[in-house]
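Lab notebook, entry 243. We have the chain sequence and a SMILES string for flavin-adenine dinucleotide, and the next step in the workflow is to get a structural model of the bound complex before anyone spends time on docking refinements. Request logged below.

Task: model protein plus flavin-adenine dinucleotide, output structure tokens.
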Amino acid sequence: MITNFKDAGDHVILNGAKMWISNAPFAHVAVVWAKNEAGDIQGVIVERGMEGFTTPTTHGKWSLRASATGELVFDNVKVPKENILPNVKGLKGPLGCLTKARYGIAWGALGAAMDCYDTALRYSKERVQFDRPIGGFQLQQKKLAEMVTEITKAQLLVWRVGVLMDQGKATPQQVSMAKRNSCEIATNIARDARQMLGGMGITGEFSIMRHMMNLESVITYEGTHDIHLLITGMDVTGFNAFK
Ligand SMILES: Cc1cc2nc3c(=O)[nH]c(=O)nc-3n(C[C@H](O)[C@H](O)[C@H](O)COP(=O)(O)OP(=O)(O)OC[C@H]3O[C@@H](n4cnc5c(N)ncnc54)[C@H](O)[C@@H]3O)c2cc1C
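Result returned:
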């Protein structure tokens, strides 16, 4: 982490930048994790309008196009000390937020998977080829049967993590497994569902291509697919393969 702040009396001076921030172009406040002079990570609230704080928009996205994304750039921003989050130092702060967000994303990716499955199922009952609905062919039934099986398994996994979370027992590693698995099955299901619609599957008449493109962000943000795999790898082996 390069973004940092230095003590300057009643305020701190913040320098650095963060790329790929959702809502950056119009957010009124940004919660920024940065290193203090001792090297500890702390949360700082930066307000739109503070001198030296800019939020350029990221253009040319083919995924999550309905959501504005941008950078947060801090060039000697004077931040009052009262804007420093008081009760947490170190990675515990940002990781605590991420664990909650990743849990939500594990459900969100399943929503996309369910819509792709439902679209393919309905289409397979209506589209007639060789005198019967394509849903009557074994190859298409295999795809549908596997989709609904994977969705059901993934729902049970995320539901179980939710129950553990309510009891205060869920671990970040369990949340990583759930987020990664939901993204994995959702991207596979979107691809199979799109094929089941043939040429119609690539059009905007149906939601599948939109889900496919959005899932490419979901598989990347809140911890990439690779990093969640390494978290599970470290959890089971005890070895850190990140570096
Ligand atoms: C649409 C969108 C919205 C976002 N919104 C936010 C937001 O609101 N807030 C926020 O903080 N972030 C946000 N992000 C950022 C997101 O979390 C990062 O893009 C993500 O963490 C990956 O970082 P990176 O893009 O720098 O990729 P990199 O870190 O450059 O990774 C590139 C590739 O290398 C792999 N890799 C990296 N390190 C290792 C390693 N040690 N071992 C093996 N493989 C490795 C990664 O898995 C990936 O496949 C958003 C991203 C997107 C696309």
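Notes for the group: Residues 20-22, 64, 69, 217, 220-221, 224, 226-227, 242-243 surround flavin-adenine dinucleotide (CB under 6 Å). Worth checking against the assay data. The chain is about 45% helix and 20% strand.
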